[in-house]
Description:
By secondary structure, this protein is α+β, with helices and mostly antiparallel strands. It has helices spanning about 15-20, 70-90, 120-125, 135-150, 155-165, 170-180, 200-205, 210-225, 260-280, 290-315, 330-355, 360, 365-385, 395-405, and strands at about 30-35, 45-50, 55-60, 100-105, 110-115, 120, 230, 240, 245-250, 255. The protein is globular, with a radius of gyration of 22 Å.
Amino acid sequence: xxxxxxxxxxxxxxxxxxxxxxxxxxxxxxxxxxxxxxxxxxxxxxxxxxxxxxxxxxxxxxxxxxxxxxxxxxxxxxxxxxxxxxxxxxxxxxxxxxxxxxxxxxxxxxxxxxxxxxxxxxxxxxxxxxxxxxxxxxxxxxxxxxxxxxxxxxxxxxxxxxxxxxxxxxxxxxxxxxxxxxxxxxxxxxxxxxxxxxxxxxxxxxxxxxxxxxxxxxxxxxxxxxxxxxxxxxxxxxxxxxxxxxxxxxxxxxxxxxxxxxxxxxxxxxxxxxxxxxxxxxxxxxxxxxxxxxxxxxxxxxxxxxxxxxxxxxxxxxxxxxxxxxxxxxxxxxxxxxxxxxxxxxxxxxxxxxxxxxxxxxxxxxxxxxxxxxxxxxxxxxxxxxxxxxxxxxxxxxxxxxxxxxxx
Length: 408
Ligand code: ADP
Ligand code: MG
């Protein structure tokens, strides 16, 4: 008899029996302990560990509110999307995504690999720690997951089935509002603007109609360009890392959208780490220059390695006859790179003035230094958006960063 035929919200102690019932992961009679490790308000994350061998596993369960009829569908569907995207991404980019062992649609749980000995990348970077293969691994993840799920490679009917499977209207709406609308007009009065830059934001963001037009074009691209199965929230809080390895997880915003969305998100979030180091470390601190140089190198290499891997996968796997027409590969890449720069700009701006800010910047205590960092990011973000068709290589990002930083 299946003991778990009806949903209930588990406590840590319940998960020990549950895990034994559901997966064949621990030895018979293992001495297991369980604790809740999550910090979210909708999902509960539990870790079950064999005290003797140290082996462990993660259970992520959607929270109690999901039992309320209407919300139930939404949350169950989010779990389904997350589990199935992790599985697909894991097959396309092995080792970079935690393994999913089981998705249980009754208990609304994902049972997955424990990302042992890794930490969230945002605090990792705020402690000026580095990982040498960041650009290499991230570009592999991006190229493999994005290009392999696009019409370049896939059978067009099968791809359309995936477009349907991964329709994610509620989470897309959040991005449409928080990334593509409110940072430019504060229409819902929930932007968080640091008071010392209030006038700057009024002038540079809320009053710039030329900018608004370009953002509108990007917003309609986000909503209508069902190009690839994107992660949808690839910031440094969706990465677990140490000095030897990294994982990308939490793809609950995944849907069929523009490839540049994921690539641009990574670029913007890496630069926040640069701003943090630039503002909080003394010039005499020997960690400062190496860390900043590492960040810039990762941004540059990420773009260049993505281009290299795009070309390789394209040549090896292109399936569509018309996509083999000379010149199309280069044309298509140029649209991806323009989207990338546009999104790098949007993510830069929304994390400074929007509703969801980043601690890399908000933790800068010196007011003048924080204001300078915010102005740099906004100015750079505008440049990425307005000049997006001219960002064609990693060096173009380095040049833009240097140019803007020197203005302030
Ligand atoms: P939510 O979607 O509720 O934000 P996350 O997937 O971001 O949940 O997980 C919340 C926290 O739980 C993470 O920040 C991490 O600390 C921990 N966590 C989640 N999944 C794992 C995992 N597979 N291995 C280790 N820790 C995890
Ligand atoms: Mg999350």
